[in-house]
Amino acid sequence: MATLHSRRSRIAVELACALSIVLGSIPAGIGHELESDRLTIVMREPGHLALAFRVDEMTLLRRLLASDATDTDFLISMAAMDDTTFDDLVDRGRARFESQVVILDQNASELVLRNWRWTSKDQLRRKIRELAMATVVGGDVHTHDTGNEITADAVSASPVSGITLRLPKQAAKILVVAYRPQQSDYDPGHDAGLVVGF
Q1: Please, are residues 143 and 35 in contact by the beta-carbon 8 Å criterion?
Q2: CA–CA separation, 65 vs 165, rounded Å?
Q3: Between 20 and 30 A from 185 (CA), which of 20, 86, 157, 198?
Q4: CA quadruple 44, 46, 48, 50: dihedral positive or negative?
Q5: How far is 77 from 62, CA to CA, in rounded Å?
Q6: Whose CA is closest to 80, among 144, 145, 125, 143?
Q7: Distance between alpha carbon 156 and the CA centroid of its chain, in Å?
Q8: Do 135 and 72 form a contact (C-beta atoms < 8 A)?
Q9: What's the N-to-C CA distance of the chain in angstroms?
Q10: pLDDT in tens, 56-109
Q11: Can you give the pTM of this predicted structure?
Q12: How much is the pLDDT for 189?
């Protein structure tokens, strides 16, 4: 019995060592390579597009307002700001971003962007301070921890069949996903099943 137990223990140790070697051979930043800023564009109606950005807001603000600063320096300075200065900086960065997002329809007419909605500044401030504390203690910046959703509506008086998107040059590379949803009514009590095509 002791032999079986010691054999299992040895196998467990060997597996743990092999796993640590495999994980150790993966570059440290690979997890963050999978994370990227993202924009989802959904056509709600022929003249109405819903935009949903998922971005690292702290890095976006740094790129828009202090492009010469490092992520760490900008993070620490934002965390140390008093609430009024922090709010003013965030308002300035957000206004700059909104003013530089341009969507043109198939005729090169600019769509009206409205109803911008951002994460609350209190929530952003709390995330940044937590991240700054973790950075001071751990010494590494994982800026995607400040990932926030930004939503807006793009509207046109006429139907939109295609768009040209322009974002601020300072913005990071972004994955854009666009689609027009298919909608169908389905009554499980009366219909045998709903066929959905992709």
Answers
A1: no
A2: 22
A3: 157
A4: positive
A5: 11
A6: 125
A7: 26
A8: yes
A9: 57
A10: 999 999 999 999 999 889 999 999 999 999 999 999 999 999 999 999 999 999
A11: 0.74
A12: 85
